[in-house]
Write a structure and sequence with these properties.
The complex is a heterodimer of chains A (251) and B (300). Chain A has 251 residues and is α+β, with helices and mostly antiparallel strands. Chain A contains seven helices and twelve strands. Chain B contains ten helices and four strands, in the order H-H-E-H-H-H-E-H-H-E-E-H-H-H. The longest helix of chain B has 17 residues, at 2-18. Classes of the chains: A alpha+beta (251), B mainly alpha (300).
């Protein structure tokens, strides 16, 4: 009798589990188009991380206030304060890089008139260590001081982690592609705040987006994207707040 | 009653003596999961291997640990008989006069470690780009995922694409094996992951090579992947149909769905191999074609 009861119970549990409807989720297709200044054309913002924070703007008020109050150190200011060479600052700026990892170090930047002093020193140390010139160049970041290498990126990550700890739930994050498009997938239906959390450097300004978005179950985002910009337009769903870049203390 | 007890004990004793020792260790197999093998990796593996330059273009672990690593605990097994089984863990010939070893690591042996790789962090630091980059230069993903065939990219196979940044000081560094390699249940490595759209060619897309886009344009989830666990190529149908099912352009998807309407045995072949092309198209495909989903079995 007991065996029959246990069997029945097991069958009931298995059937019940199989009948649980799949969780309905939605997709948000984000498109970011910006103008660096009035003379520039509108173009897709490339390769910046955006976050989707559960809840309304009001529910995330404390976090948004903290984002607004957060002092911003720009890349130039960070490296100037560090005493980095102008050549390194230019090299990072040219690639819109947050660390030296973001682009390969070509031969021209290791030796010769365009050489970046920090790279030249690291290359010399790498040559002794790795014997091959090619390996020495490709691995030269292993002989750069940590602050020069990725100190700016790590600082930003520290700020980001501290701010996102204040979010009420699991935060989704994606990076937009070179055309300014990204997909947030597997989203539960509801209200979210779309934010870049740390202001994006754009020409001479810093732009912050904090926008409230609705996600519907089953939305595959095959229609129009959720367009955000730093300029108003009828298709733009959220306009970022621009502030002038701070003056570096080292200037 | 006491007589039965005595008989039982006697019987059990016989069983213990006669039964072969099934738990005897097999020293021809090495497991990192053995408790005593779980000391710091550097106890046995030296980074880099002393003579790495002979076999590698960059400093790496290119060989098995030296004899000391085994003998310190396994002296009895080491000197047992003319062909000690323990030698066959590293040596392809078990002979004191021949030190030839399997390739390191032995491709025939099961994998004991899973690799931990956060794509999201690496996207942050290596996949940035400048606007002026020509298409062939902006896919920094190719630092690790070089072309294996014209169809699919390869996954990294060695330390070449890791150590150029993680050699020292940038954690996890080369000596911190556990930073990336996590002990797991032994498994057979599958170098040929299952593909859904086997006919897709990364370098294709007609004369203009329209497929040569930025990787994340189609692999939409990669920038949020903090781990390799459960990671799939994750290309939504919308990435394909932006060109392949557009009014006035092409109707590759819709045409095949119509072909199924006419013949439920039709095999979709534009993107898929028969093993996938003969299945019911998923709801997402019908959604793109603006039609309600149907099952092949319901077609008369």
């Amino acid at each position: 009798m007991k065996l029959v009861f246990a069997l029945l119970l097991t069958v009931t549990v298995v059937v019940a589990q199989q009948q649980v409807p799949p969780r309905q989720t939605g997709v948000l297709r984000l498109r970011v188009r910006v103008k660096a200044d009035d003379a520039s054309v509108l173009r897709g913002l490339a390769r910046k991380r955006f976050f989707l924070i559960p809840g309304t703007l009001e529910q995330n008020r404390a976090l948004i206030d903290a984002i607004d109050r957060q002092p911003v150190t720009t890349r130039d200011c960070y490296y100037k304060k560090l005493g980095a060479s102008a050549a390194l600052i230019d090299w990072l700026k040219e690639g819109d890089c947050e660390s030296v990892y973001c682009r390969g170090v070509e031969k021209d930047y290791v030796t010769g008139p365009k050489a970046v002093p920090e790279f030249a020193s690291a290359f010399a140390a790498s040559q002794k260590e790795f014997r091959s010139e090619e390996t020495a160049r490709q691995w030269l970041t292993t002989n750069l001081a940590a602050d020069v290498r990725d100190g700016f990126y790590r600082n930003r990550q520290g700020v980001l982690d501290a701010l996102l700890k204040q979010a009420g739930g699991a935060v989704h994050s994606v990076m937009i592609d070179r055309n300014g498009t990204a997909y947030f997938t597997d989203l539960g239906p509801g209200t979210y705040v779309l934010s870049n959390v740390i202001p994006t450097e754009l020409g001479q300004t810093l732009v912050t987006w904090n926008c409230e978005v609705q996600v519907k179950a089953g939305d595959l985002a095959t229609e129009k994207p959720y367009l955000i910009s730093n300029r108003k337009d009828k298709l733009v769903k959220c306009v970022g707040i621009e502030k002038p870049k701070p003056i570096c203390a080292a200037d | 009653m006491p007589q039965i007890k005595t008989k039982s004990v006697f019987f059990i004793l016989i069983l213990i003596c006669v039964h072969p020792r099934s738990s005897a260790a097999d020293y021809s197999k090495f497991s990192h999961a053995t408790q005593k093998h779980q000391a710091a990796c550097s106890t046995c593996h030296k980074v880099p291997t002393k003579e790495w330059a002979k076999t590698s273009a960059f400093p790496d672990i290119t060989d098995y640990p030296g004899h000391d690593a085994c003998v310190s605990c396994h002296r009895p097994q080491f000197f047992r008989g003319a062909r000690p089984p323990i030698c066959s863990v590293c040596h392809s010939k078990t002979s004191p006069r021949d030190d030839v070893r399997y390739a390191f690591r032995n491709p025939a042996s099961n994998r004991q470690f899973a690799t931990e790789f956060p794509h999201d962090r690496h996207q942050d630091v290596i996949a940035l780009l400048r606007f002026a980059h020509a298409p062939q230069n902006y896919n920094n993903c190719t630092i690790c995922h070089a072309a294996r065939t014209t169809t699919f990219k390869a996954a990294p196979k060695d330390h070449a694409s890791c150590f150029n940044c993680h050699w020292k000081s940038q954690q996890p560094v080369a000596e911190n094996c556990n930073g990336c390699h996590k002990l797991t249940t032994p498994y057979v490595s599958n170098d040929q992951p299952s593909r859904i759209s086997i006919n897709f060619i990364h370098d294709g897309g007609g004369e203009k090579k329209q497929h040569v886009a930025e990787c994340t344009t189609c692999h939409i989830n990669i920038t949020k992947a903090a781990s390799l666990r459960g990671l799939k190529p994750d290309v939504p149908i919308t990435s394909c149909t932006e060109c392949h099912n557009k009014d006035g352009l092409r109707q590759d998807l819709s045409k095949e769905l119509v072909a199924i309407d006419k013949n439920r045995g039709f095999v979709c072949a534009y993107c898929h191999a028969p093993n996938v092309g003969s299945l019911d198209p998923p709801a997402s495909h019908y959604l793109i074609a603006e039609r309600p989903p149907i099952k092949r079995r319901d077609i008369k």
